[in-house]
Amino acid sequence: MIEDAAGIQRLIQASPPLDVNSTYAYLLLCRHFRDTCVVATRQGQLAGFVSAYFPPTQSNVLFIWQVAVHPDARGCRLGQRMLEHLLARPLTQSVASLETTVSPSNQPSRRMFAALARARGAACVEESMFPPELFGQADHEDERLLRIAPL
Ligand SMILES: CC(C)(COP(=O)(O)OP(=O)(O)OC[C@H]1O[C@@H](n2cnc3c(N)ncnc32)[C@H](O)[C@@H]1OP(=O)(O)O)[C@@H](O)C(=O)NCCC(=O)NCCS
């Protein structure tokens, strides 16, 4: 819901190393991409968020953009459960592979996606996607593509 956008931005602010996007970007995600996004609440508070979309020319690929779990809710497999929830929706039943990017040092993220691949008996392959120099002046880590398939 668009009412979630400001809270999502606060959750992302509390979830380094994620890039914090504008409130407007989260409003667009909540409005135009709600079918491929997930929010999780705990006791009325926003505890988790996943943004994802189908790349315009690849309708059988689900690209996961940001996954965030509130620091107080980590370690309970909420991240993995939100991804599984997304993959259980009718809209994603024709998805053949899940793609995302991870930085080399983000072990929680890598482990979460590895656990998903393991649970599905899928392979997880890694290749170059957005090397650091593409981020301009910003001191940004490499963002490497992970492809989990077949789903
Ligand atoms: C990455 C993140 C979403 C994981 O959420 P989570 O709900 O705590 O993760 P899960 O409980 O689903 O864990 C899934 C796997 O990752 C492992 N894991 C999670 N956090 C970990 C940590 N800090 N260190 C080591 N392993 C970790 C779990 O042990 C589990 O692996 P296993 O099945 O082999 O035991 C969360 O740590 C987060 O929001 N981080 C900041 C934002 C970020 O980096 N997002 C990911 C990039 S898009």
Automatic annotation (TrEMBL):
PROSITE patterns under this entry?
A: GNAT
What is its pathway?
Answer: Amine and polyamine biosynthesis; ectoine biosynthesis; L-ectoine from L-aspartate 4-semialdehyde: step 2/3
Report the residue ranges that make up the N-acetyltransferase domain in this protein.
1-147
A Pfam family it matches: Acetyltransf_1
Q: The organism sits in which domain of life?
A: Bacteria
The GO terms describing molecular function are: diaminobutyrate acetyltransferase activity
**InterPro entries (alphabetical):** Acyl_CoA_acyltransferase, Ectoine_EctA, GNAT_dom
- The EC number on file is 2.3.1.178
| Keywords for this protein | Acyltransferase, Transferase
Question: Gene3D superfamilies under this entry?
Answer: 3.40.630.30
The Gene Ontology biological process terms listed for this entry are:
ectoine biosynthetic process
Which CDD domains does this UniProt record tie to the protein? NAT_SF
Q: Write out the similarity annotation.
A: Belongs to the acetyltransferase family. EctA subfamily.
Tell me the protein's name: L-2,4-diaminobutyric acid acetyltransferase
Q: From which source organism is this entry?
A: Pigmentiphaga humi
